[in-house]
Amino acid sequence: MITLTQAAADKIRELMAEQPGEVYLRLFVQKGGCEGFTYGMGFDDRTETDDEVLEQHGIRLVVDPLTRRVLDGAQIDYRRTPMGEGFAVHNPRAVATCGCGHSFKTAEDPGEAQPCEEASAGGGGER
After folding, report:
1. What pTM, to 2 d.p., does this model score?
2. For residue 60, what are the β-bridge partners?
3. What dihedral do alpha carbons 108, 4, 49, 70 form, nearest 10°?
4. How far is residue 26's CA from residue 2's CA, in Å, rounded to a whole number?
5. Which CATH superfamily is domain 3-112 in?
6. Which of 98, 90, 72, 70 is nearest to 7 (CA)?
7. Which of 33, 60, 82, 112 is within CB 3.0–4.6 Å of 103 for a Cys-Cys bond?
8. In angstroms, rounded to a whole number, what is the distance separating the alpha carbons of residues 125 and 127?
9. What is the H or E stretch that residue 120 is in?
């Protein structure tokens, strides 16, 4: 199961209030990045037939089958530090991560790694 901390849910709720209509938070992974997969999230107003909808802290989180598989057991947090603030993914399935923390691979699925210069130029692929 993928979980949201209360801090993440509070920030997501704040951001959702700025969206028109009713939306879900879509959490996804894309093949690419230095290690094989990259994390992504955004708002979506629809679900696909193979999506799973999870509700936590009043937030409806939508994940596709690939995301569900490689992020099973992950926790999404929101942190504020003197150096900045943002969402963080704690993924126990990740066996390797890149230096920036946005790319990972799992023991079961290495994804499709790209050289760092391609990954940082926006070559993340499609979900």
Report:
1. 0.75
2. 55
3. -10
4. 12
5. HesB-like domain (2.60.300.12)
6. 90
7. 33
8. 7
9. helix 116-120
Which of these, 86, 87, 91, 104, lies nearest to 36 by C-alpha position? 104
By 3-state DSSP, what share of the chain in percent is helix, strand and coil, each rounded to 5? 15, 40, 40
Are residues 60 and 53 in contact, defined by beta-carbon separation less than 8 angstroms? yes
Which of 18, 44, 40 lies closest to 30 in space, CA to CA? 40
Q: Which two tokens stand for residue 90?
A: 């704690």
Return the domain boundaries, the chain. 3-112
Question: Which two structure tokens, joined as six digits, stand for 93?
Answer: 């399935």
- pLDDT tens digit string along 52-104? 999 999 999 999 999 998 889 999 999 988 888 888 888 887 766 766 656 66
Q: Tokens 């629809």 identify what position? A: 46
Q: Which pair of tokens denotes residue 74? A: 């992950």
3-state SS, residue 110: coil
Between CA 87 and CA 40 the distance in angstroms is 10
Query: Tokens for 36?
Result: 């094989």
Q: CA Rg, the chain, in Å?
A: 15
